[in-house]
């Protein structure tokens, strides 16, 4: 179970497991255990920080700074979504 449906396609399961440990499987354990896993804890930290370019953007409330998984895969969590055209 991934916190974002895009994550496994961006870097593959093994890349995320090297960074955050085993990807939780709710069929093998509980939902609570999955949500408290290192992967989900890291995801909560990553998504809680907005890129500086987005702070004053008038569309921030609509896009919520875009896809953090794309930003992480392409550069850094502190950069805006690579798909953003603003």
Polypeptide structure, described:
The protein has 86 residues and is an all-alpha fold. Helix content is 45%, strand content 0%. The protein has helices spanning 7-11, 13-20, 31-35, 38-47, 60-63, 68-74.
Which helices and strands appear, and what pairs or packs with what?
Elements (H helix, E strand, L loop, with lengths): L6 H5 L1 H8 L10 H5 L2 H10 L12 H4 L4 H7 L12
Oligomer: single chain
Helix fraction bin: 40-55%
- Rg measurement, Å: 14 Å
The succession of helices and strands, N to C, reads: HHHHHH
Compact description:
The chain has helices at residues 7-11, 13-20, 31-35, 38-47, 60-63, 68-74. The protein has 86 residues and is an all-alpha fold.
Keywords, please?
86 residues; mainly alpha
């Amino acid at each position: 179970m991934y916190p974002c449906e895009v994550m496994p396609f961006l870097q593959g399961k093994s890349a995320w497991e090297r960074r955050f440990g085993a990807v939780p499987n709710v069929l093998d354990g509980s939902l609570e255990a999955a949500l408290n896993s290192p992967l989900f804890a890291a995801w909560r930290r990553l998504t809680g920080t907005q890129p500086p370019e987005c702070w004053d953007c008038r569309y921030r409330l609509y896009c919520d700074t875009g896809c953090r998984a794309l930003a992480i895969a392409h550069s850094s969590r502190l950069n805006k979504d690579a798909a953003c055209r603003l």
